[in-house]
Amino acid sequence: IERGAHAAIEVFSNDARERSELGFRRIEKELLKWDREIRVAELRHRGQPATLASPAEIRRTNIATKTEMGGHFAGRVLPVLLITMLILGAFYPAIELTAGEKERGTLETLLTAPLSRLEIITGKYLAVVALSFASATLNLISLSLTVAHALSQLDATTTSAAFSPRPAGIALILLLIIPASLFVSAVMMVVASFARSFKDAQNLLTPVLLILIVPASLLGGLPSDGPTNW
Fold it and tell me: What are the backbone dihedrals phi and psi of residue 10, each rounded to the nearest 5 degrees, phi first?
């Protein structure tokens, strides 16, 4: 470098180890900083301005409005929480109406009623669906109002997002919740029906709960290529 020649710096790292990869990134950052300092010093030695070491500066300007940013944030967070609340809303009712009645011995009494088995199962299923839908709906309204209130309380200089859910957007989400409630309730009731007690049903449904929630968490909400407008 002192002779004006190009120098190669070789850094050994083990990419199979996370700490080694993090260490390489730190070293690379310091080496890039050192490299710029050398260029700046050489330019000053030649009487040139130091800005030539970095002749171009990239600046990123966000053109999204506060409402669009708020909708984007809500679209990332609310769906995951909404699906979780929907699943939890069907979890215990499904156990109570299947394994719970088996454990208490009330299922036999119910079968003596002048109703067909299909009517009994349909009634239980619709009850679980209703509770799951109600849980998701109430949590949707609560979470939307909470996010909107929290963003409105922040000072305009400290936040670049605003959230004001529209009735049409909430109505569309509620419409989409219906098939999700039907599916989740059916899965929960089918699995819980194999259990003989409340505790056994909890043990059987816990893996199902994780299987349903984990994909929703990994998806990270609703990505949007354009403005998210509620």
Answer: -105, 125
Closest CA to 222 of 67, 85, 82, 63: 82
Rounded Cα distance between 132 and 182, Å, is: 9
DSSP symbol at 57 = -
CA–CA distance, 162 with 70 (Å, rounded to integer): 5
d(CA 79, CA 85): 10
- Does the pTM surpass 0.90? The reply is no
Express each pLDDT in 27-62 by its tens digit.
999 998 888 888 888 878 778 887 777 776 677 777
- Model confidence pLDDT, tens digit, residues 100-127: 888 888 877 777 788 888 888 899 999 9
> What are the helix (H) ranges across 96-166?
101-104, 107-111, 117-153
Residue 226 phi/psi, 5-degree rounding, is -125, -170
